[in-house]
TrEMBL record:
It holds the Pfam family Phage_int_SAM_1. Keywords: Chromosome partition, DNA integration, DNA recombination, DNA-binding, Plasmid. Residues 10-92 form the Core-binding (CB) domain. It comes from the Bacteria. This is Phage integrase family protein. The lineage of its organism: Bacteria, Pseudomonadati, Acidobacteriota, Terriglobia, Terriglobales.
Length: 306
């Protein structure tokens, strides 16, 4: 069996688009971002072929207009623009684009986000209803319950959950924690595991006889656990299916991460501690993530009077 193709260190002559693409993708650490960048390059290539124009600021303006026509979110479009800016910078370094053209692309602005996008999340009652969906009489139900519990109770990203190992959950200061979890931007954090989440994990690992290796694994139709990790798209599929069972469409793994943050905040959780839990780089990121909610029952202007 042959291994993955290696990215050449020295550029070929002439430098090809595929080589530039490979160089840019090699510098992207997150598998999720790498997949998004790769998709961006595919779509850009098809668009440039369709208009028979090279990459320039003018063709990028036309491409952004095409993306806006598809009603894509600002964040989705901006990920594509970020990938294209990096591609242009690499093209300049290798003499494919002149400095002026490259600069006109690398300083191309993002699409402005209108308002604060807070996304979807569940109420406490909805979260309990979601956790009740998996049939814990079956092995796959025990696994799915543990999967949902980890996302909901620990605020993990699906990629973080997919690579989680049995050995990553240890005891510190009298409680279960996930140690040295590497998140976005290679930030390392420790995540406390609530008691009810640990109970769910223990039910799954005991039933599946998992004592090391990947924590979450596929379960065969005959009800036997596999040896490999479940995979991040399978994690997403479980969440989507269970959400549909309680009547919620278009609900994904990141919405459970947001739910965790919202429920922590509503229960009086300190904003800085929520930042540590989620692995955000700053309090401002966490504030934008949580959004703002207007309190009507106890309104801010009820706190004083003449």
């Amino acid at each position: 069996m042959t291994g993955p193709a290696l990215v050449p260190i020295a550029p070929p002559a002439p430098v090809t688009f595929d080589w530039l693409r490979a160089i840019v993708l090699a510098g992207v650490a997150s598998p999720y971002s790498k997949r998004n960048y790769s998709r961006a390059f595919d779509e850009l290539g098809k668009f440039l072929d369709s208009i028979e124009e090279p990459l320039s600021r003018a063709s990028l303006v036309a491409y952004r207009a095409k993306l806006l026509e598809r009603n894509l979110s600002a964040s989705t479009i901006n990920v594509q623009l970020s990938a294209i800016r990096q591609l242009a910078a690499e093209a300049r370094r290798n003499g494919i684009l002149d400095s002026e053209t490259a600069a006109s692309i690398t300083d191309f602005p993002n699409v402005r986000q209108q308002g604060t996008q807070t996304g979807n999340w569940l109420s406490r009652d909805q979260a309990k209803e979601l956790l009740a969906v998996p049939d814990q009489e079956k092995l796959i139900g025990k696994r799915d319950h543990a999967l949902l519990a980890l996302l909901l109770g620990c605020g993990l990203r699906r990629q973080e959950l997919a690579v989680l190992q049995f050995e990553d959950i240890v005891e510190r200061e009298g409680r279960a924690v996930i140690v040295d979890l590497v998140g976005t931007g290679r930030r390392v954090r420790t995540v406390a595991v609530p008691f009810w989440v640990k109970q769910s994990i223990d039910r799954w690992t005991a039933a599946a006889d998992i004592q090391d290796g990947p924590l979450l694994r596929p379960v065969s139709k005959s009800g036997k656990p596999g040896k490999v990790a479940l995979g991040d798209w399978s994690v997403w599929s479980v969440v989507e299916r269970c959400a549909k069972e309680i009547g919620i469409a278009n609900f994904g793994t990141h919405d459970l991460r947001r739910t965790c943050a919202k429920l922590c905040r509503k229960s009086g959780g300190d904003l800085e501690q929520i930042k540590f839990l989620l692995g955000h780089s700053s309090i401002q990121t966490t504030e934008r993530y949580l959004g703002s909610e207007q309190e009507i029952a106890v309104a801010v202007n009820d706190t004083w009077s003449f």
